[in-house]
Amino acid sequence: MLALTAVAIVCLAVPLPHGVPMTAAALGRASRLRIVGGRRLEGVVRTSGAKNAVLPAMAAALLAPETTTLENVPAIHDTLVMAEILRALGARVEHDPARADVLQIDARDVCCHIAPSRLVTSLRASFVVMGALLGRLGRAACAPPGGDVIGQRPVDVHLAGFAALGASIGREGDKFVAQAPGGLRGTRVFLDYPSVTGTQNVLLAAVRARGTTTIVNAAAEPEVASLAEMLNRMGARIRGAGTHTIEVEGVEALHGTRHRVIPDRLEAGTFAIAAALTCGEVEIRDVRPRHLDALLCKMREIGVRVEEPDATTLLVSRAPSARLRPTQIQAVPYPGLATDLQAPMAVLLTQADGVSFVHERVYDNRFLYLAELRKFGAELVQAGSTAVITGPTRLTGASVRALDVRAGAALVLAGLAAEGETEISDVYHLDRGYEDLEGKLRGLGAIVERV
Ligand code: EPU
Question: Residue 243 and residue 220: Cα distance in Å, rounded?
Fold first, then answer.
C-alpha cells in the first residue's frame, strides 16, 4: 500500500452517493468550473457531512480493535486520502455497498505506527492519526501535515500535548516520532493556542492515558465536541468538550461504534451566503443553525432575512430591492465567526452599501484570494490582517484561480453574483471539501458546469 503513488490513490474507485465512481477524473483534478452568473438561486439544498468532523472520526476508529461505522460521510477527496492512510496503517476501510455515505472501518489488524508521508502531506487533518496511534499502539510516526496555503500551520501545540502526556518526541527523517512504551499518563495539558486539530490529537491520545487529563485552553469547535461524543460512545470518559476545558478519564480499552458525522457548517454557510448574494430564497436542510450563530447574526445585521423554521433547517432570502448594510467581521475561534467563512463573507460585503472591514485573527496569510476577487471588479484592499471592502460594486465574470478550499468557494460565490461568465481553475481545491458543489448549485438554478 505504501508503494502506491498519490495519483494511483486518487484513482481508486469508491462510489459517490449519486452513483458516479469517485476517481481522479470524476473529482475533476485538472478541470475548471464555468459559471454563468446573475441567476437568482431558489429551492432546497441538503448539507453533507462535515469534512473537518469526518476526518478525525476516521482516525478515532483506529483506537478500537473492532469495526466502527460512520454515517453521513461526504464524498470528497480528503476522505479518500484519509481512507488510504488508514489502510496503510493496517485498517480495512470499506463503503457499505447499500449506502455510499456509510463507511466501515475495521481496525482489528492495525499494527503499523508509521503514517505514509506521501499521503499525510496532502491534508492537514491527517496529523490526527498521530494521537490515535499513540493511544492505540503507544507510538506514532507522522510527517508534518499538508493542507491549504493560508499561513503558518505549525504542530507545536500537538507535540507539546503528547509530551505533557509522557510521550518522548523526536524526529526521524521527515517524520515526527512520539513514543510512550510504558503508556501515557493523565495530566494537566495547557494548549498555547486552542488549535482545533491540536485539541483533537491530544484528546485521541488522552482517552487511553492512565488517570485523568485536563485539557486547558482547548478548542471549542463543534468538530471537537462531535469527536468527543463519538469517543464516549466507544467507551471513553470525556466531559466538557465544546468548552475550553476538557476532562478525560483514561480507560483501558475502546470498542467499535456507529457514529453519524455532523452536518458541515461551512458548506451550509456557503449556501446561505450564495442565497443572499443572488437575491434568492434557499432552504438549507440538515443543518445545525446553532453551529452558525456568528454568521447568521452578521447576515441578519446587514439585512439578509434568515429564518429557522425548525432545528435542522435554515431559510435564507433577500429581496432584489433589499440593500445590504456594511459591517465589520472578525474571524476568530469558535463560537466566533469561522475563518473558513471569512472569504465567502467578504464576497457578500462587496454588495453592501459602504465600507466594510474584515479582520482575520486566526491565520496570518488568508487574504491571497483578494487579488482574485479584484478581477471581478470588487474593491478590496488589505491593511495587515484587515481587508477593507468598498461596496456595492457591480461584479463582472472573470477568469480566476482557486487558491484553497474556502478561497475557491468565495470565487464560486462571486461568479454566481457576477454578470457574465466566470471560469475558475484549480477546482480540485473545492473537491477536497465540498461534496458535489456544482450539482447542488445546479439544483438551485445556477448555471455551473465542469469544463
Ligand atoms: N497553530 C499553532 N500551533 C499549532 C497549531 C496551530 O500556532 O500547533 C496556529 C496556526 O498557525 C493558526 C491557528 O493556530 O494560526 C489555527 O490553527 P488550528 O490548529 O486551530 O487549525 P487546524 O486545526 O489546522 C482546523 C480546520 C481548518 C480551520 C481551522 C480553524 C481541519 C482539518 N481544519 O485547522 O479548516 O480553518 O481549524 O478553525 O479541521 C478548511 O476546512 O478549509 C480549513 C482550513
Answer: 5
